[in-house]
Amino acid sequence: VPHTDILIRKLESIGTLTDEQRQAVARLDGTIIDLRRGQDIVREGDRPRTSTLLLSGFLSRYKIAGTGSRQILALHTPGDVPDLQSLFLAVMDHNLGAVADSQVLSMPHEEVRDLIRSHPILGELLWRDTLIEAAIFREWTLNVGSRAAYNRIAHLLCEVMMRLQAVGLAQGNRCDLPLTQEDIGDATGLTNVHVSRTLRDLRQDGLIEMARGTLTVLEWERLKEAGEFDPLYLHLRGTRGSAVGGTLG
Amino acid sequence: VPHTDILIRKLESIGTLTDEQRQAVARLDGTIIDLRRGQDIVREGDRPRTSTLLLSGFLSRYKIAGTGSRQILALHTPGDVPDLQSLFLAVMDHNLGAVADSQVLSMPHEEVRDLIRSHPILGELLWRDTLIEAAIFREWTLNVGSRAAYNRIAHLLCEVMMRLQAVGLAQGNRCDLPLTQEDIGDATGLTNVHVSRTLRDLRQDGLIEMARGTLTVLEWERLKEAGEFDPLYLHLRGTRGSAVGGTLG
DNA sequence: CGTATCCTTGAAGGACTTCAAATGTTGTGG
DNA sequence: CCACAACATTTGAAGTCCTTCAAGGATACG
User: Fold this and answer.
1) What is the distance in angstroms between the Cα of B236 and the nearest Cα belonging to chain A?
2) How far does the CA of residue A174 sit from the closest CA of chain B (Å)?
3) What is the pLDDT of residues A184-197, one digit of tens each?
4) pTM across the whole model
């Protein structure tokens, strides 16, 4: 399978593509790069000449606060292009790195620009994706700003699960989630210690199982409720209002 | 002065315009609406047919969490188009309302779409603005997720000050900031009580004065330091790296 | 098999919240 | 222009959620 398959699946999770558009996306080319957990792709202050399509694994965007603590701003799943913004914003304002061993396609900006110029509709779809990303950022602000630890972590798990499902990377109520408790803490504004205690509570309440990098959702409805999770903000095709599509629930 | 002047000033704070593009923006038309503090423009679940240009005042985007508490996700200053996203995302995933008496221009989607179609470069500039907005959302996640109350509020004040300055709405080290302490709390994930105590500390430390809806920054450098504020993420023209442009500092 | 990393649990401390009441400010109708 | 109501700010005291510090145990990997 060509490496752009996952991108096509991602785009079709948020919009529709014609055959011609699918072929145009499939012609996108670049360099495949293997990354180890912890490796950075671009850093704050960089001026990238490429954009990165995540093929497999997990990436995170993060910043280091004044106290030295890391805040994860976004988690990225296969099909995402986390540094598309460098097409229009010359200087990176945050870091992008791998939180799990990953494989990416590094696409020269010109490749992407040509695609957008020749297919304005695809440009609009990518813009749309930018807007969805912004909606996810807002939801994260709500998450760390307004929810208690228990609900906050529940919400994060719901989101990752649903996004993986949208690109076909969940197996029923189960998915790969190769995050350490420290990663989860950095994404939710909590300490790894408190994440440990809170995950124990979620397990003891029978909502999830989580071990060896695999998340299993035992009680989707109760987990959603705990996380106050309404997938509307993901703007996925196939979710109508606050209904949950797919095989979940 | 035509009402689109403020939009042109905003666009020129993040990019360059030709005379022809300026004229095209100036031809944007719509309905002028006056809003009182507390009034909503669009709500979660709505499917707007217009986008809103803020002419004067302050708007906020917000969500209500499960506990009933309001989380402000973004503050908008004149020149912003806070619901541009409704051009591409049919359903609103959050609310947009006035936090101060405001005046807006409600522009039919078709008006904006025509502008983008006839001037793709302006489309790219608006996309760029979308990306900057996303950068601001990320910074807010960092703010509420990683910083203590004192630093958090300092950061918010720095950002608002600098954004108002970028569109010419600050008078030296002073600007209108018609926010209640409850508003500030909802934007930073704090209670109004703790905001009150923290603002007192900021005043006592000689960093700011704040009364009757006016903010005066007495010690810009120390306030920046307290807020760990690096304006890079605002991607303003005229700021090089982390340098502070304009009349501040 | 040993070492690094990750997870878990306990105990103490701190930042922020909650509850409550007093004071100050703003806007409006008489 | 005053009086009054509604709203915003301030301060105190008690409580809670989460952090910090510390140490032991499990798991992964060369």
Assistant:
1) 10
2) 26
3) 999 999 999 999 99
4) 0.95
